[in-house]
Design goal:
single chain, about 260 residues, alpha+beta, 5-stranded mixed sheet, two-stranded antiparallel sheet, 11 helices, about 10% strand, binds iron/sulfur cluster, binds FE2/S2 (inorganic) cluster
């Protein structure tokens, strides 16, 4: 995060009376911002330019982990800056990255078992079952439960339960056992995807077709086209109708696979 030269707080726009302003503290400095803003928008309203810790702005990328607290409480609160609306007297600091243990491994040499997880993340046994991680998760994931399933060797269960994880790190921010829940979760999803879920038939077929150079003719044709022709071909391509049948296929598949 960087700061523009002069805070826009003093601009004409802000000097005009605006109802429902609330005082907040960004990196230790007080600003009055509209009460309806998210923390992310409040930073920008106050003149900060977010170049780190800001991505999708829609609660999906997990880049905007933020910590805050209130003057009458020592409790550290956490949230996604793009999803958390400001409250009066929030003291806010952004932490775009939570340092947490990330094990190194070669997925091809692992087995999809609980002992794989506990060997790579032995600290998982330190979990005290406090549930703070679950209460911190902006994606409403039962984090404590997927940790518990990972300990029990239920790789599929841990992987499925953690599927919506956006890797924001907020669960780790307040964990008394210093777990890196999201790194444990992604290990279980990798094991699940590599060893447990049946392979996708269409993907296997596609790889085989690439190896057999079945796309070469179509690609060769495209490579010879100039940009305008490419645009024309792209715009005129058959596209799946919005409400088409589930088994829809393009009529002309010559350009996809050539015998
Ligand atoms: S916050 Fe940490 S110790 Fe508490 S339940 Fe979650 S993983 Fe376990
Ligand atoms: S499990 Fe942890 S890292 Fe994943 S979305 Fe929830 S709080 Fe963020
Ligand atoms: S900016 Fe992507 S989750 Fe907030």
């Amino acid at each position: 995060m960087s700061k523009d030269s002069a805070p826009k707080n003093k601009s004409k726009k802000q000097s005009e009376p605006i109802h429902d302003m609330v005082p907040i503290f960004l990196m230790g400095k007080k600003y009055d911002v509209p009460a309806t803003l998210t923390i992310q928008k409040a930073f920008e309203y106050a003149g900060y330019q977010l170049v780190r810790g800001c991505g999708c702005r829609g609660g999906i990328c997990g880049a905007c982990g933020t910590v805050y607290r209130f003057p009458d409480s020592y409790r550290i609160e956490v949230g996604l800056a793009c999803q958390t609306v400001v409250e009066p007297n929030m003291y806010i600091a952004q932490i775009p990255f939570f340092p947490a243990n990330r094990a190194q491994y070669d997925l091809e040499k692992l087995e999809p078992t609980g002992s794989t997880v506990t060997a790579l993340y032995p600290e998982i046994y330190k979990c005290v079952g406090c549930g703070t991680c679950t209460r911190s998760c902006p994606m409403d994931i039962d984090v404590m439960e997927y940790i518990s399933r990972a300990i029990r060797g239920d790789i599929a269960g841990a992987a499925e339960l953690s599927f919506d994880c956006v890797m924001c790190g907020l669960c780790a921010a307040r964990c008394p056992a210093e777990e890196a829940q999201y790194n444990i979760a992604i290990l279980t999803r990798r094991l699940y995807g590599r060893y447990i879920v049946p392979g996708a038939r269409h993907l296997k077929d596609a790889v085989e077709n690439i190896k057999k150079k079945k796309f070469e003719k179509g690609l060769g044709k495209l490579k010879k086209m100039n940009v305008d022709k490419l645009k024309e071909v792209y715009n005129e391509r058959e596209t799946e109708p919005q409400f088409g049948p589930e088994d829809w296929e393009p009529e002309n598949k010559d350009y996809l696979v050539t015998k």
